[in-house]
Amino acid sequence: MKKSIIVIVFLLGIFAQAQNKKWTLKECVQYALENNISVKQSELDLELAEVEKLTAKGNFIPSLSAGAGVSENTGLSFNPVTNNAQTTTFLSASGSINVGYTLFDGLRNIRQLQRADISKLSSQYRLDKMKDDISLFVANGYLTVILNKANLEVLRSQNEVTKEQIERTQELVDAGSLPRGDLLEIKATDASEQQQIINAENNVQISLISLAQLLLIKDYENFDIEDEGYNIVDDGVSNRDVSDIIDAAKANRSEIKIAEQNVELAEMDLKIAKGVNWPTLSAFFGYNTRYADTPSFTQQIDPDNPTVTEQIGTVQGTGQAVIGTFPNTFPVEVAADPFIDQLYQNDGIGYGLQLNIPILNGFNTRGNVQRNKVSLERAKFELEQAELDLESTVYQAYVDAKGALKSYEAAQVALESQELAYDYAKERYDVGLTNAFDFSQSKLRFDNARIELNRSKYDYIFKLKVLELYFGIPATELKF
């Protein structure tokens, strides 16, 4: 009984710990990379590329096929062993093995294997890009939750101040030091703040649900994140010249590598298409054998009368008969040879070379070559466009990061000013030198300044990490 109670308490402890688990950003990113559907689809594309490579390797292996057949014939048919027409019922069987090997096909097999290697590498780059994109989506969703939580904390802490002011104002109104209108103004502020808190709580819940959906976590109610310890960590990328970041992005980003692989694929497709114009030389070898269970007939000499004399003609002119002596034979039925013996007796082989020279096929080959030339030029243009797009995107990310930093610094200065103004307004309100409305407005500006600082802080963190990602820092190694 005691052991059962201990086990139950232990399991309840584990369950409670699981319910209270708070996910870190690193855990969220890792979980998304392992479970996200888009990532899994990209991994399947990589597996298909591996299958394509295996198929290309198989082109260098000889083709091998075997066949066998059994049939029973009734009536007039040809015996497959004797090749004689027979009216009977017999069982026959046949078997064959054929081997073929392509000796030369215009280097198409070699280029198909090279193309499969390029295709696999391209699929790997697509998988890497998908992981980077998912990591950024998760980081953005995570920082959004942190921002909403920070804003909620601001509203709650300031509402505590408002409640304290209500109590103090109530005392002053009861003492006749302040008009009742000031108390009503403070209570109106409290009601407005309560509404803002409810909206902020909804924003936190909605952002948590959005993040959980991105991670494919269905337990929305118990999902939560670790919302502390995320500050601005700059490894110096923001201080680099934008040209250095653009060069690093061109050297490291998957977008460019994918476009480069597409050019190589188009070049290889063109070579494969041109290879169709070359002659194809192949070798073949075949072995076959057969069996039939029908008896055969042989001629046997009569031991009692071994010869027979017959006239075979006359001499022209004299009319003298020409006599011939022949063996006196009669037909004897012989049973079919054993199965194994017939396989050896009736086997045969065939081998040789086959040369196929393409001459004219309705311009299909020529048209295919032209199409692949166009595809190659298109791939080159796409590579050039990808480089231009990446350069523009990196430059925009660089400007956004710089602008976000300035906005964050400005928000810090604004918060300091609003905090001083708030403290001054509070002091004046406490001694009755200002009314509740002016104090509420000062407090509202201070709250907004704190919220704006939170927004600008996490906006800068995200844009800084985007810039670091373009610089070549892996998504899993970004520091927060």
UniProtKB/TrEMBL annotation:
Signal peptide: none annotated. GO terms for cellular component: cell outer membrane; efflux pump complex. PANTHER family: OUTER MEMBRANE PROTEIN TOLC. This is TolC family protein. Belongs to the outer membrane factor (OMF) (TC 1.B.17) family. Its main location: membrane. It is found in: Cell outer membrane. The keyword Transport applies. It comes from Winogradskyella luteola. It holds the Pfam family OEP. InterPro entries: OMP_efflux, TolC-like. Keywords: Cell outer membrane, Membrane, Transmembrane, Transmembrane beta strand, Transport. It comes from the Bacteria. One of its GO terms (molecular function) is porin activity.
